[in-house]
Known about the structure:
single chain, mainly alpha, elongated
Amino acid sequence: MRRALVGCAVAQIVVVILQFYLATFGAFQMPRPTGTDPAAIGLHAANGLFVIPAVSLVATVVAALAKVPGKLIALCAAPLVLSAVQMLVVFPLAGLAGATTDDTPLASLFVYGLHAVVGLGQLWAVIAAYRAVRRHTKAPVEEHQPQPV
Length: 149
């Protein structure tokens, strides 16, 4: 189970770093996509909506099954929670600030800046989780002695 947890921690780092790459991949697409044109930023959206939460959920379940400390389980779950924050808080707030598919007023741009800050939080969480997983897996396995009845 420890090896599976290390693998999950590495997978979380990979998909979060990929998210940053895909953000710039889509941001620099020229000419800008219009209407029905496929946008390269769609890969960023798909990774953030589906891949990061799925990998995070698997890592959280594996961490729980590995019976690691609660703090480590929380670090594995953090990218999933932060993805939910992106979808349920940041983007709706940007809409309230006036963002539409055709216009992004200055107020909404400030709110969209939080999107990057939350992404940095995801990056911190997956690196912290990986480091904690490595420390945990290097610790000696406790022997469970049968308790006298």
